[in-house]
Specification:
The protein is an alpha+beta fold. The protein has 3 domains: 130 residues, Beta Barrel (OB fold (Dihydrolipoamide Acetyltransferase, E2P)), CATH 2.40.50; 121 residues, OB fold (Dihydrolipoamide Acetyltransferase, E2P) (Beta Barrel), CATH 2.40.50; 48 residues, no CATH class. The protein has 4 helices and 15 strands. A hairpin with a 7-residue loop joins strand 1 and strand 2. The longest helix is centred in the first third of the chain and has 18 residues.
């Protein structure tokens, strides 16, 4: 009998250890539920955490964190502070972990909303800074068609396609878009981005978490304005107000640098100036028939008028773009 008691006690102890295992953001976010609900919804869990990618300037204190080990999806999540002052001293680039936080992914009867880790006093949560000054994960390029815009009906905006759930709270970037319309959404602060490659591909964006906004929209936003790329984190906005039901994804920009124009040194048109562009540049090295900007793939980029030769002056100019000295 004593042996049985000992075995049961050991098993219960092991079960407690398994239950207390810290979960990755991926394990909290990944779901096959048709409504996108986290399998951990309603539970008090420990989270291995991730790198702080944004600390919104307004509203209830929150952090957006991302685990770079899952760059292709299910790697981002938001943390809300219901105590007050819990996130003081936390900076973008800090890797934080959390214990005793509540997973909340169900606020409304119709719900497919954003997953939050709620930092509530009654659960005695703990936030730990694991490391500082980590590089921010590079935004994942996502086609506009992957972020479905809602279908507008009578007193509702409804999402038909929830496949973008995998990108929730992650840094993503849409490429080659134009502002098609403004004044959308629950508080009229959303604008529509349409793909310049496919006019049928549209998504919604908003600037309400952007550090550089004084008002509703960033100064760069205007109907007809083109961008090589727009970066932000993806949030699903869901609820019901005054009889209007809303459910839509929005790309939330965070700073002026999130709006990219095509740079002269971006020879492959991917909104980045990197070593792939350097390879293209070197393919035209010392070429002498570059009298027009559209010749030699634009590699004759020295600030003066094109001199027709791709040489050291152009290389020096390219390096300035490569190092981020020019936008």
């Amino acid at each position: 009998m004593r042996l049985v008691i000992v075995i049961v006690a050991v098993m219960l102890g092991l079960a407690g250890q398994i239950q207390a295992r810290a979960l990755s953001i991926y394990e909290i976010q990944y779901t096959t539920d048709v409504n996108g609900i986290s399998p951990q919804n309603g539970q008090i869990i420990d989270c291995l955490g991730g790198i702080v990618t944004h600390k919104p300037p307004t509203g209830r204190p929150r952090l957006i964190i991302q685990d770079p080990n899952y760059p292709d999806g299910w790697g981002g999540i938001q943390v809300k502070d219901f105590i007050g002052g819990s996130f003081e001293g936390i900076e973008i680039g800090d890797w934080i972990s959390l214990t005793n936080v509540e997973v909340e992914d169900s606020q409304y009867t119709k719900t497919r909303g954003t997953t939050f880790l709620q930092y509530r006093a009654e659960n005695e949560p703990v936030l730990t800074v694991v490391s500082r000054n980590n590089p921010i994960p590079r935004p994942l390029p996502v086609s506009v068609s992957e972020i479905a815009a809602p279908v507008e009906g009578v007193d509702e905006w409804v999402l038909v396609d929830h496949s973008a759930e995998r990108y929730e709270s992650m840094l993503i970037k849409v490429i080659d878009v134009t502002v098609a319309d403004m004044g959308k959404g629950k508080v009229n602060d959303n604008y529509i981005l349409v793909s310049n490659n496919d006019p049928n591909s549209v998504c919604w964006a908003s600037d309400y978490m952007n550090y550089d906004v004084d008002g509703i929209y960033h100064p760069f936003i205007g109907v007809g304005n083109n961008f090589c790329g727009v970066t932000g984190f993806l949030e699903q906005y869901i609820g019901e107000s005054d009889g209007i039901y809303y459910d839509y994804y929005q790309l939330l920009t965070t700073k002026t640098d999130d709006f990219l124009v095509l740079q002269p040194a971006d020879f492959d048109g991917d909104c980045d100036v990197d070593f792939e562009d350097l390879g293209i540049f070197m393919g035209y090295w010392k070429q002498t028939d570059c009298a027009a900007r559209d010749n030699c793939n634009g590699t004759d980029i020295a600030p003066e008028q094109p001199d027709g030769v791709v040489d050291i002056l152009d290389l020096m100019e390219f390096i300035r773009y490569l190092n981020g000295e020019k936008n």
